[in-house]
């Protein structure tokens, strides 16, 4: 049984349909990339999976109906890192990550809560930042703090919306490599909405390709990142090359402009 099974998920903002009949599954230890053009419904899908939004369709977590679970139950199973993560408060990194323990907190912070925060900071290589102000971090440091905050929820599924946006090239690679390592070593399931197809190809086990709220393809990057799919989903002519078994996409031109590449 997959950890997460999504069948026939649809969602509308009032009279505007954003997602239509989306279906896929997610296994333990898997990184699933959600890709597609702007406006294809990637962020909305993540928000539906975290029950921030209430979609139509059937979403099951370990066989349980997600809509029947309490907010606390969901928070103990699914951790969501929104795009840009929101503004970080002028508190320490330790205090910021400790906020991820909210689903477990009672009247006071326990020693176990503190231990889990310290372990997450160490795992992400930011243990030395514990006393620094979170609002004064660089982009890469900030993203690691947000992932650490998600990890201390003890969630089995991490949902990340554009985790590499606004990061330089080195930090993009480091963040995606970290997510892949968490999946491989801790058997976490990761769903990442991502624009960079080449990062998705390198670090995701599978990808789901959305266009106008519908799934146009699902599978291994090598099977989906093709010239035909780039034309159908993004409206571009692209060369898809192979680098040690990993596809990478080189966009050439809009597919309907008739301009030849020189």
From TrEMBL:
It catalyses: an R-cob(III)alamin(out) + ATP + H2O = an R-cob(III)alamin(in) + ADP + phosphate + H(+). InterPro entries: AAA+_ATPase, ABC_transporter-like_ATP-bd, ABC_transporter-like_CS, P-loop_NTPase. Residues 4-237 form the ABC transporter domain. Gene3D superfamilies: P-loop containing nucleotide triphosphate hydrolases. It comes from the Archaea. Keywords: ATP-binding, Nucleotide-binding, Translocase, Transport. Its EC number is 7.6.2.8. GO terms for molecular function: ABC-type vitamin B12 transporter activity; ATP binding. Pfam families: ABC_tran. SUPFAM superfamilies: P-loop containing nucleoside triphosphate hydrolases. Required for corrinoid utilization. Probably part of the ABC transporter complex BtuCDF involved in cobalamin (vitamin B12) import. Probably responsible for energy coupling to the transport system. This is Cobalamin import ATP-binding protein BtuD. It comes from Methanoculleus palmolei. The lineage of its organism: Archaea, Methanobacteriati, Methanobacteriota, Stenosarchaea group, Methanomicrobia.
């Amino acid at each position: 049984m997959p950890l997460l099974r999504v069948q026939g998920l649809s969602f509308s903002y009032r009279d505007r349909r954003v997602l239509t009949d989306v279906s896929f599954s997610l296994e333990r230890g898997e990184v699933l990339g959600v890709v597609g053009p702007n406006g294809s419904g990637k962020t909305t899908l993540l928000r539906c999976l975290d029950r921030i939004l209430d979609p139509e369709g059937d979403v099951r977590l370990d066989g349980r109906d997600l809509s029947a679970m309490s907010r606390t139950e969901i928070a103990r199973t699914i951790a969501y890192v929104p795009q840009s993560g929101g503004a970080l408060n002028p508190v320490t990194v330790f205090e910021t990550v400790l906020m991820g323990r909210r689903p477990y907190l009672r009247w006071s912070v326990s020693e176990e809560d503190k231990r889990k925060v310290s372990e997450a900071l160490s795992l992400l290589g930011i243990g030395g930042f514990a006393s620094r102000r979170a609002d004064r971090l660089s982009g890469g440091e900030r993203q690691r703090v947000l992932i650490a905050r998600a990890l201390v929820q003890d969630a089995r599924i991490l949902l990340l919306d554009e985790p590499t946006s606004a990061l330089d090239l080195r930090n993009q690679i480091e963040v995606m490599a970290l997510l892949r390592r968490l999946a491989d070593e801790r058997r976490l399931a990761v769903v990442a909405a991502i624009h960079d197809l080449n990062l998705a190809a390198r670090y995701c086990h599978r990808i789901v390709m959305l266009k106008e709220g519908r799934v146009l393809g699902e599978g291994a990057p090598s099977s989906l990142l093709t010239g035909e799919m780039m034309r159908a989903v993004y409206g571009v002519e692209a060369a898809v090359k192979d680098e040690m078994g990993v596809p990478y996409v080189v966009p050439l031109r809009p597919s309907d402009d008739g301009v030849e590449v020189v």
